[in-house]
Every structure is written in structure tokens, then in C-alpha cells.
Model the fold of this input.
Amino acid sequence: MIRHAVVLFILLTTVCYAQHPSLPSSFQSKTIHSPEGADIYVRWGGTGPVAVLIHGYAENSDSWAPLAADLMRDHTVVVPDLRGIGRSSKPEGGYDKKTQAKDMRAVVTTLGFDKTVVVAHDIGNMVAYAYSAMYPDKVQRLVVMDAPIPGIEPWNTILLNPGVWHFNFHGPDAERLVAGRERIYFDRIWNDFTGDPSKPDEDTRNFFTATYAQPGGMRAGFAQFTAFSTDAKDNAVFEQTKLTMPVLAVGGEKSFGALQAEIMRHVAINVQEAVVPHSGHWLMEESPEYTVNLVRKFLE
Done:
């Protein structure tokens, strides 16, 4: 009887406590002060060459869980929360991607590292591009996943797509509209850009929503988009000098697809193209095994 009760408890616990994304528990963590006026929360673990993973919007650094768990076998994996997101501070300004690239550099050097590979998704692509353009001799390889770069063609065409309505949804009134309804707002984004309506799953959606529902979280999240006009001006300057490190441009088949490589060929001379079959935008949630294998093969 007792044995059966224990088994039932385990089963109920498994059902009731689904697993949201989480970086390996062995990772160390600390908060690093960026000279640009933000405190950046970062976790790192593993041994070997350094790989910096930069997350996107509607997520935080835990979104990298599948890739981090794989790469830590033979890499030192560094996974920060962008300013304003997750456990990083939420300053009033500094959400242009050039400033956030400086945040990332502060993280890398404070941890005692220098040259790294950089892997990015969504808004993280924009920060990673700025980082690679500003510190080209510090980036050995660059992976960008499924997102445009402000000001880089076909940026103006992308802006005409009603699917990117959220690029222009920000400001105090937007904050008031979303307050207490963050999950509804994020559901629209997750649903619009997924190739599988069940992904991200419920527990993952609730987990990420909670990180943005913190005081100041939505203001800081919206600020990522407010900065796009500044980013476009900065990128017009960066684009004049093409990136020379190898670049892997990954798009979901039901999202950016081959367009990701087209975008990166405007700014880099050595671009490899990859499309994840059947996947939408949320590559780590929709097709983690396939995507992890792509990145690992590129980094080897």
C-alpha cells in the first residue's frame, strides 16, 4: 500500500510540475556591473572554448537550456540575461544594441575571457551583430537565428508586414494596456510565430511571462523595440565594414527560412545558410535537437 502511494505521488508530482526551460544546475552565477549603467545577471559552466549565448525577446537566458546542456560538454558556456530582462537590472535607457553589446563585453572580460564564439536568437541577433562589428577580433564564429537586423535589407519590407505589429507597440499606454495581461500579449507573439501551436508549452509560457511581469519588466521589454531607429543608424555605419568571421545564419522553415542568410550576406562575407524543417521562430522550443546539432557542427 505504501509503495503504491509513493508511486502515485511521483506520478502526480510529474504531472503537476512540468519542466520549464532551465540552464544546468551546475552553472555558476553572478551579477556583473556594466560600465554602461546596467547590472547583468550571467550564468556560466563547462570547460573549453568560450561560447556566449544571447537570448531574444519573450524569453530570457533559460531559453538556451538545450544548447547550453549540450555545449557544456566541451565548451565554457556563458549565458547572460540582456539588460531589462530576467534577473538583470531594468535601467531607464541603454536599450540600443550598441550599448547592449558593451554590456556583453563587460560580462566576457569580467569573467576573465576574451575571444569567444557568439550564438544568438531574435533580439539577441541584433546585439550579437553590434558586438561582432565592434569587437571583430574577439568573435571567432557567429551564429544568428531567425530575426532581422534593424536597417539591414530587407528591413523596410519587413516593417510593412503586419505580423511585426509588436515592433511599434510600446510606450506608457502600451504598458497600461498590458499590465496584468502580459500572458495575453505574449501569447499573441508566441502563436503568430510558431510552426507548432503547442510550442512553447504552457509551463514555458507561464515561466517567461512571469519574468516580464516583474516591476519595470514590460517597460524595459518595450524599450528593446523603441531603440530600433537608433540601431538602424548604428548598423548603417557597421555595415560599411563587412564581418569576416564565419557566420551561420539559421532560419525556421515556417519563419525566416533562407531570408536569415540573405540578411547576413549584406553584412558578412563568409555566411553559411541553414533552415530548420517544420519549425517556426522558437527554435529551441520547437526543434531543439535539430537546432543544437546545427550549431554544434558549425562550431566543431
About this structure: Residues 235 and 259 are 18 Å apart (CA to CA). The radius of gyration is 19 Å. Confidence is low (pLDDT under 50) at residues 1-17. Strands lie at 28-34, 38-46, 50-54, 76-80, 116-121, 139-145, 247-252, 271-276.
